[in-house]
Amino acid sequence: MNILKNKGTFIIAELALSHEGSLGQVFAYIDALSDIGVDAVKLQHHSSLFESSVHEKFRVNIFPQDKTRSDYWERTSFSLKEWKEISKKCKEKNISFACTPFSIGSLRELIDIGVDILKIGSGESFSSPDLIDECFKSKLPLLISTGMASDIEIEEIKKRIKKTKSFAGIMQCTSMYPTPLEKVGLNVLEEYKKSKIPAGLSDHSGSTTPSLFCIAKGYDFLEVHVCFDKRMFGPDIKASLTLEDLSRVVNFRNELNLINENPVNKNEIYNEMKEMRNLFGRSIALKVSQKKGHIIRKEDILMKKPGSGLSYEFLDKVLNRKIVKDLPADHFISLEDLE
Q: Are 122 and 145 in contact (CB under 8 A)?
């Protein structure tokens, strides 16, 4: 599967764990995002057994019901049966199902249930080479975020991407939630593009500006966190776009595609504009009424709308000629009026 077959920037809506473990919430998001027209819905597959130790701390400790990070993963995780329902729902809605596995066990489950796109998170991009290896082996489309990676680590990622025969791409990301606009790093995307590998943006700014830039510049894919409303609860809400925000981003992408797919031929437009040219154009007209025999001088005329009479190009054929009859003010001069 090559996700770049889509016309224009491929847009991924990241739910992360904003669903709080509710399958119904995931379904509601899929319905809404399908209506908006995003290309993929992305979730995260965590497994506390293979992912967290007792030493792991909360990035943002706002969950009173969860004493440990493992408690949080357990509460917000889905069973294999529920993951299959999510995959089925995406297929029904004709929207790609993307997911970030945080362990090899999670990856294998995702492959079994038919995930469409894999993504390596920023933390795993530099610390989980075995997981990355297994993702490449799956032959599924793979996106790799670089939110915490050094230049040396990024170069290694790019080398891996260039070697693979399946689709893979790199994503500029800054792992701050929300990311200040001055830390988004759109300049890094330019560097990625020079490497001639698929490149895109994973944005956590909560602003539409980086998304619109990414689309306008023609980058390959865009991932943004999404929420129903900024008043919702969760650690990623400030870093998210609302559905209304995302709808504007998708519309911008679609409208830009329409423009790019239809280059304008000015000669064809000229032929279509004949009626409009008459309306907006100007004709040679008399300033004031003139008597038969008067010799037309330049000071006798004005160029006035509409353009249904003689155009400025006929001026040399009008000047210094006698009129053959009395003519009123505002009369559009014709060649028949002249000797």
A: yes
Say yes or no: 153 and 42 in one domain.
yes
H or E stretch covering 170: strand 168-173
182: CB partners within 8 A, 6+ apart: none
Give CA–CA dist 70/48, Å, rounded: 5
Instruction: Assign residue 311 the CATH number of its domain.
Output: 3.90.1210.10
Which of 260, 293, 317 delimits the end of a domain? 260
> Structural domain of residue 317, as residue ranges?
267-337
Residue 231 to residue 261: CA distance in whole angstroms: 39
> Tens of pLDDT along the chain (339 residues)?
567 766 799 999 999 889 989 999 999 999 999 999 999 999 999 887 777 666 667 666 666 787 887 888 788 899 999 999 999 999 999 999 999 999 999 999 999 999 999 999 998 998 899 999 999 999 999 999 999 999 999 999 999 999 988 899 999 999 999 999 999 999 999 999 899 999 999 999 999 999 999 999 999 999 999 999 999 888 889 999 999 999 999 999 999 999 999 999 999 999 999 999 999 999 999 999 999 999 999 999 999 999 999 999 999 999 999 999 999 999 999 999 999
Distances (CA, A) of 19 to 44, 189, 317: 11, 30, 77
Q: Tokens 């609302």 identify what position? A: 242
Residue 59 DSSP label: S
pTM above 0.70, yes or no: yes
In a domain? residue 273: yes
In this structure, the answer to whether residues 274 and 250 fall within a common structural domain is no
- Using left for φ > 0, alpha for ψ between -120 and 50, and beta otherwise, residue 32 falls in alpha
Q: Give the amino acid at 137.
A: K
Query: Is there a single domain that holds both residue 211 and residue 275?
Result: no
Residue 1 in any domain: the answer is: no
Q: What's the structural domain count of the chain? A: 2
Q: What are phi and psi of 285, to 5 degrees?
A: -130, 155
